[in-house]
Write a structure and sequence with these properties.
119 residues, 2 domains, two-stranded antiparallel ribbon, 4 helices
């Protein structure tokens, strides 16, 4: 089971430092939680249940995630919150960074899952 590491935002990777400056101006302390253990088959493979989660989210919320990185990160978020709704704090912001072009290599597998969904 992955345990979230809680880092002050100032210690997070460089692109997030702009959020740190904003949080200081607003007087709010922000944290970045790192969730490990959800890489699955790594960047070379995507399990069927990971693709199914991607299809379900797209069908229910209209949000399309890339299967290699963002879908795995979203799965980490949802599984962590399903075990403990307060594990990541009172408010959670998931940043979708794109990567939709990595959907195309999985088009046949995704098409089968979409076609199998009940109408």
């Amino acid at each position: 089971m992955a345990v979230p590491a809680r880092l002050p935002l100032a210690l997070a990777p460089t692109p997030i430092l702009k959020l740190d400056r904003l949080s200081r101006r607003l007087g709010v302390e922000l944290y970045v939680h790192l969730l490990d253990g959800f890489q699955g088959e790594g960047r070379h493979g995507v399990a069927e249940e990971e693709l199914q989660a991607l299809v379900d989210l797209a069908a229910h919320e209209g949000v399309l995630l890339d299967p290699v990185y963002t879908a795995k990160a979203f799965r980490a978020l949802t599984e962590t919150l399903s075990r403990d709704a307060k594990a990541l704090g009172q408010r959670v912001c998931f940043i979708h960074t794109g990567g939709l072009f990595s959907v195309f290599p999985f088009r046949e597998r995704l098409s089968r899952l979409v076609d199998a969904r009940p109408s």
